[in-house]
Amino acid sequence: MLDINFIRENLEAVEASTREKGYKTDIPAILKKDDERKALLQEVEAMRKERNDIASKMKGGKPAPELIEQGKKIKQELSVKETELDKLEKDVKTSLKAVPNIIFEDVPLGGEEKSVEIKKWGKNKEKGIDHLDFCTKRDWVDFERGAKVAGNKFYYLKSDLALLENALLQFGIKKVLEHGFTYMTVPDLVSSKVLEGTGFAPRSSKQSDEYFIEGEDLALIATAEMSITGYHMDEILDEKDLPLFYAGYSACFRKEAGAYGKYTRGLFRVHQFNKLEMYAFCLPESSKEIHEKLREIEEEIWQEIGIPYHIINIAAGDLGAPAAKKYDLEYWSPVNQKYQELTSCSNCTDFQSHSVNIRVRRKDGHLEYVHTLNGTAISLARALVAVIENYALDNGKLKVPKVLKPYLGNRDEI
User: Fold this and answer.
1) Is 382 part of the annotated catalytic residue set?
2) Per-residue pLDDT reduced to its tens digit, 377-404
3) Domain 112-407, what fold?
4) How many angstroms separate the CA atoms of 64 and 58, rounded?
């Protein structure tokens, strides 16, 4: 959530970013509503002072009937005004949630098709083996029983495919530890405050991609980003302790409500998967540099695994509300002969920290909101797809990438 004073001071930039991201938010109307809130707040504060003055006069003796009547009247009027103020403050806060973060100057303008390739790595294969056909023939995955137990797009991983997933995770953990991240497992459920503070859709939204728990103020997480964002909620961090780097492992749950028309075969787009997520809390002046660091770590992981990819700078119209800038790493699919989503990393500046109240105390004592960033280390279901498509052999075996061998009994093939 953007600060209302920031919006006032940067109205033109905020309105432009809101349009470019595809939001139809009436920002002047929000500012007008906030003006009404401030005026009402002044009125309430004046009435509170009058109430307190009357209370002081009524001490130390029997007050005059007129003073008692005046006290009752101001108390009743104040109660009405405070109720109006509370409603207006909630309205303003709700309206602010519809204002997305501003974009950086180097973000391409336009829709998804305007995203810009900035780098390419590896040699693209001309043909590959479909991961679902390959895994089904080897009895490595069971979508039928997954659907019987939990519904469509749920599944069981079995045998060497489950071990391959674990190998990818262990390799990912090794890499993030090498880069100084603190590894953690995280809650798979978060409150609505954390969910909305992270920038994901609330329970009432028709576009919500999250699974909510009936009768509870809880939702299943779509990514460990949610849980880690809430880790320092309502805290003041010390400047000397930043940046903080965390790597969270969790299950992820998504309805994929917005996946219409996208590639969904097999494990590529499912309702539950496991993921190792990188996250950073940092000083505002460091976030752009750290964003590049997260991207470089993602590239390092996939270069060592040996999967061809390219990096794209995501266009404004395809950015979510929290991100000021986002990179996607897309792997080369030899089966579909195109690049497909694999990982991403986003700089959310102070959009999330403002919503969940995470600040830093500077050396001179003043407080400001930290910047938050996130990046995928390994999204395991899609990682399996990428590895199978690029390493499946014609003899029905899977060549094991060199860096994964230590986690698979040093086998060359599985």
Assistant:
1) yes
2) 999 999 999 999 999 999 999 999 999 9
3) BirA Bifunctional Protein; domain 2 (3.30.930)
4) 8
